[in-house]
């Protein structure tokens, strides 16, 4: 028992645990649409593209962590809608356009951060996150914006479902297709900004995709897929933090590795059962 | 938020005037003009690339024509929710995590309105539609577990739940075995009693002649649009199919145009 309770005597670990669970649930639910609509590359690109925004905030505010959330949020929404607009342009293939922008913006972010002398430490913080450094203020931001995203996903469940399954049906039913598409991109953007401190830019796509992909192997209904993905993601958060504490591994990596292990186990179990 | 456009019932359910559609300068449809009466069943036949899918997209308001005008009961299609477009089966993600009932309920989205969840009345529409297409027993199945014919019937149920008055079906018979094809065609016959107007793109001239009131022979332009016996003449078919048509000495017509590319 003390094995489980010992880490929890520290307040920063309690906060980290709550943050990991909340971010896990949020990423899993939004990630379900990312998986179903084949937007994994978009999610990865989006996470990397916000680095210059964070870097700018970091340079201007002198390294304080909390204001960085707003910089991340602003950049993420601009980047998401920008990528959305680019993908409507048919002259260049969508994934090529995203690839060009995403690598360029990422390089810009690294360049900006490298102007500071101690940049290596801070850069790794942005790239890989550090859930154990979540402040009470940051935790509140996660709670507020996370609930907001989940509320919108819940309220527009039937619209997003129809749009994702059959965009032509959504058009003939005269749903506001363009608005809903941009809203979904914005929800992914907010999710990325909220989750930044937990897993960082580089591992973000794993939080969006891995739990949802695992759930998609286990159920054939969207609502159950969301619930199951949320469960897998929060378990990954909890287990990952214990692993991180006892084995002294970076927290973001530990969480993602746990989620990956869940995926592999389910994948193998399905393969064995299918024979 | 959702439009519910008034229907001028003295106007035809569908009126297409001089519609032309160009993709990158190449005309996919040219100078299409026709109108339909409520309750008619129309087969649209023509070779691959004749513009059948394009025409359905223009009629349903998914695609804007480059020139010309489409009206549904007297007003433009983009505000009507009474048109159902049933996609080709190859364009649907059959692994999507939804049940048959979920898909049929999607047809209610417009009438439900933004933010509202299905009410008892909406579920009644869904169950009734599933009953008509004889899929009640499979309502909770994931859609990938249905046979090809059942998948088409599910989309008809979705159109019924939508309370569609004009149903456009893109190649619904392709890839189905003969019993499933006949079952689907009989179901369309039954729909006529509900004054649903149906346009079906098909490759099968024989079935088009037996099950539909009028046949539209299309190859970018309308070559003929009339009752079957007036359309299925060798000269019309030669115009539509060109070299892909073979007429043997007995007068039997063979069209070398079986499989649409995926």
Describe what you observe in this structure.
The complex is a heterodimer of chains A (275) and B (262). Chain A has 275 residues and is an all-alpha fold. Chain A has a single domain (2-267), classed as ABC transporter involved in vitamin B12 uptake, BtuC (Orthogonal Bundle), CATH 1.10.3470.10. Helix content of chain A is 84%, strand content 0%. Chain A contains 13 helices and no strands. Chain A has helices at 2-5, 11-36, 40-49, 51-61, 66-88, 94-113, 119-128, 136-155, 157-165, 167-172, 177-218, 222-247, 251-274. In chain A, helix 2 packs across helix 11 (177-218), helix 5 (66-88) runs antiparallel to helix 6 and helix 5 packs across helix 11 (177-218). Chain A is globular. The model of chain A has no long low-confidence stretch (mean pLDDT 90). Chain B has 262 residues and is α/β, with parallel strands linked by helices. Chain B folds into two domains: 1-82 and 165-262, Rossmann fold (3-Layer(aba) Sandwich), CATH 3.40.50; 93-163, no CATH class. Helix content of chain B is 30%, strand content 24%. Chain B has nine helices and eleven strands. Chain B has a six-stranded mixed β-sheet with strand order 5-6-7-3-8-9, with helices on both faces. A three-stranded antiparallel β-sheet of chain B has the order 2-1-4, with helices on one face. Chain B has a two-stranded antiparallel sheet with strand order 10-11. The relative contact order of chain B is 0.17. The A-B interface holds A 36, 155-159, 161-162, 164-166, 168-176, 216, 219-222, 224-225 and B 1-3, 57, 60-62, 78-81, 83-85, 87, 92-93, 96-99, 102-103, 105-107, 109-110, 112, 114-115, 117-118, 142, 144, 158, 162.
């Amino acid at each position: 028992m003390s094995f489980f309770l010992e880490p929890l005597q520290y307040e920063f670990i309690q906060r980290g645990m709550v943050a990991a669970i909340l971010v896990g649930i949020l990423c899993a639910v939004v990630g379900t649409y990312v998986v179903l609509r084949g937007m994994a590359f978009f999610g990865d690109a989006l996470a990397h593209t916000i680095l210059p925004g964070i870097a700018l905030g970091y340079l201007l505010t002198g390294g304080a962590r909390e204001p960085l959330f707003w910089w991340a949020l602003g950049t993420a929404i601009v980047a998401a809608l920008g990528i959305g607009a680019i993908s409507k342009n048919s002259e260049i293939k969508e994934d090529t356009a995203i690839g060009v922008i995403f690598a360029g913006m990422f390089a810009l972010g690294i360049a900006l951060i490298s102007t500071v002398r101690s940049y290596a430490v801070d850069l790794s913080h942005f790239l890989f996150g550090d859930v154990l450094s979540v402040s009470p203020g940051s935790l509140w931001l996660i709670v507020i914006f996370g609930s907001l995203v989940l509320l919108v996903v819940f309220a527009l469940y039937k619209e997003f479902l129809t749009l994702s399954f059959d965009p032509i049906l959504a058009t003939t039913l005269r749903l506001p297709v363009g608005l809903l598409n941009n809203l979904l991109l914005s929800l992914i953007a907010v999710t990325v900004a909220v989750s930044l401190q937990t897993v960082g830019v580089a591992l973000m796509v794993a939080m969006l995709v891995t739990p949802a992909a695992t759930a998609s192997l286990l159920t054939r209904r969207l609502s159950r897929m969301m619930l199951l993905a949320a469960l897998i993601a929060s378990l990954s958060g909890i287990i990952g933090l214990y692993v991180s504490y006892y084995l002294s591994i970076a927290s973001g990596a530990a969480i993602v590795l746990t989620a990956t292990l869940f995926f592999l186990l389910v994948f193998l179990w399905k393969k064995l059962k299918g024979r | 938020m959702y439009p519910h456009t008034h229907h001028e019932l003295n106007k035809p359910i569908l009126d297409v005037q001089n519609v032309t559609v160009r993709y990158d300068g190449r005309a996919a449809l040219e100078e299409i003009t026709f109108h339909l009466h409520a309750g008619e069943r129309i087969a649209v036949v023509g070779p691959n690339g004749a513009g059948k899918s394009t025409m359905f997209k223009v009629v349903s308001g998914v695609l804007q024509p480059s020139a010309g005008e489409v009206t549904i009961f007297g007003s433009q299609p983009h505000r009507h929710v009474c048109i159902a477009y049933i996609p080709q089966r190859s364009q649907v993600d059959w692994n999507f995590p939804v049940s048959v009932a979920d898909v049929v309920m999607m047809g209610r989205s417009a009438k439900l309105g933004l933010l509202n969840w299905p009410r008892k009345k909406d579920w009644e529409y869904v169950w009734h539609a599933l009953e008509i297409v004889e899929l009640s027993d499979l309502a909770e199945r994931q859609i990938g577990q249905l046979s090809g014919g059942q998948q088409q019937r599910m989309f008809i149920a979705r159109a019924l739940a939508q309370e569609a008055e004009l149903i456009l079906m893109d190649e619904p018979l392709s890839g189905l075995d003969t019993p499933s094809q006949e079952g689907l065609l009989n179901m369309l016959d039954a729909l006529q009693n509900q004054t649903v107007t149906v346009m079906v793109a098909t490759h099968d001239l024989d079935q088009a002649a037996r099950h539909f009131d009028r046949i539209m022979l299309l190859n970018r332009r309308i070559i003929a649009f009339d009752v079957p016996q007036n359309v299925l003449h060798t000269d019309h078919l030669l115009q539509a199919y060109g070299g892909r048509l073979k007429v043997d000495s007995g007068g039997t017509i063979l069209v070398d145009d079986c499989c649409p590319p995926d």
